[in-house]
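Data deposition worksheet. Section B asks for the primary sequence of the deposited chain exactly as it was used as input, without tags or linkers unless they were present during the calculation. Section C holds the resulting structure in token form. Section D is free text for depositor observations; keep each observation to a single sentence. Incomplete worksheets are returned to the depositor.
Section A, Depositor: J.P.
Section B:
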Amino acid sequence: MKTSLLTLALGASMLALVATPATSVSAQDVQKVSATVSYGDLNLSTREGAKAMYQRIKSTARKLCGAEPAISEFGAMDGWRACISDSVNSAVTRLDAPMVTAFNGHRSASSVQLAQAH
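Section C:
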């Protein structure tokens, strides 16, 4: 049986940095978290399989990034959304499955970085 796994990883303190911009956080304060997404049961070359994988990636990213912040937490919502988006884009890029990339709107980590640089 073929086992296929993809690991999502991110700096868990990203949300804390956005929520409290006045706080100084050193590199040692950044905590890395990761989760593994299994997809050995999916055919990523089909619409159904790719959609299921994309949903697994997005769901895992939401779990890693934590609960949606309250609307009263100014700045935290943007950080939370960026955490999810960056995690999903990175995982989809590493997976390198065209049908999954299509569900991600043809976005990849490199295209997001280029857009942010301009």
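Section D:
Residues 19 and 72 are 11 Å apart (CA to CA).
The longest strand covers residues 5-11.
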